[in-house]
Design goal:
alpha/beta, 5-stranded mixed beta sheet, binds S-adenosyl-L-homocysteine, 280 residues, elongated, Methyltransferase, Cobalt-precorrin-4 Transmethylase, Domain 2, 19% strand, 32% helix
């Protein structure tokens, strides 16, 4: 995408005090650089320092200035991720050195991924960051298969939920969540759930039918995207069979019935029929 020189020069935000830089938490979207917002592109193009997560797609960083310092703070090449306290410290130091800092986070900065903690830490240091939304992976994942997360006849709402067990060992009560999804007709969009898939499956099966449709989408929106359409009862078997792993999103609910026919093995709908339907 072409960005005018004047836009590139534009500063994302005025510094809070002389000599101090500024910081923006920027959503990099699910991976496909075409899904970046214009605001995100502008902020990336203006940054002198970029602290990037591992889930940020390569094409996204193509918008950075050639002289920008890019620091990867995620788990790259099997290395351990940078501790959260170190990331927060790096951000603070760079701002104090007068840099224009972009903290580039996968998806949306405020959906999981500790964006809230980073904002709080900056505020404690007297710095108010700009936050720029990105398309969250849970939304992009099912959209990429042609299905919506809500549907008048299939789901009245959506729950974005983490499948990662919490620090204190307490986690989501999947049986209760499944019962709410059933009673209130909600789509469940599960982040970070692959490692706990058997636990999630067992909990949800206590309240939802085994035939409940499930989609698992790995690396949504990236060239390496893979997915499977299965049911709650067969979830673990399908994951093993297809060898799907992280990062992946699991979507549970009837909205999965709306994915493109080619993905479910159903006979394709003739294009003319689709045109007629959309003309109504
Ligand atoms: N802030 C991010 C989520 C960070 S938590 C967002 O809004 O998307 C990290 C989890 O997000 C991963 O474990 C995975 O469940 C999900 N995720 C992120 N990018 C993904 C992608 N391209 N495809 C599938 N899942 C993804």
């Amino acid at each position: 995408m072409e960005i005018s020189a004047s836009l590139k020069e534009e500063i994302v935000r005025a510094p809070a005090s002389p000599g101090q830089g500024c910081v923006a938490l920027v959503g990099a979207g699910p991976g496909d650089a075409e899904l970046l917002t214009l605001k995100a592109v502008r902020a990336i193009a203006a940054a002198s320092v970029i602290l990037a997560d591992d889930l940020v797609g390569e094409g996204v960083l193509a918008h950075a200035r050639p002289d920008a310092r890019i620091v990867y703070v995620g788990k790259r090449g099997g290395c351990r991720s940078t501790p959260q306290a170190v990331i927060e410290q790096l951000m603070l130091e760079a701002v104090r050195e007068g840099e224009n800092v972009v903290r580039l986070k996968g998806g949306d900065p405020f959906i999981f991924g500790r964006g809230g903690e980073e904002v709080e830490s900056l505020r404690r240091a007297g710095i108010e960051p700009v936050v720029i939304n990105g398309i969250t992976a849970g939304l992009a994942a099912l959209t990429g298969l042609g299905a919506p997360l809500t549907h008048r006849d299939r789901a009245q709402g959506v729950v974005f939920v983490t499948g990662h067990p919490q620090k204190n060992g307490a986690g989501v009560d999947w049986e209760r969540l499944g019962a709410s999804a059933r009673d209130l007709r909600l789509t469940l969009v599960i982040y970070m759930g692959i490692g706990s898939a058997s636990h999630i499956q067992a909990g949800l099966l206590a309240s939802l039918p085994a035939g409940t449709p499930v989609a698992v989408i790995e690396r949504a929106s990236l060239p390496a995207q893979r997915q499977c359409i299965t049911t709650l009862g067969q979830l673990l078997g399908s994951l093993r069979e297809q060898g799907l792993g992280s990062p992946a999103i699991m979507v549970v609910g009837d909205v999965v019935l709306g994915v493109r026919a080619a993905l479910t093995g159903a006979p394709p709908v003739a294009e003319s029929a689709l045109c007629e339907a959309s003309a109504d």
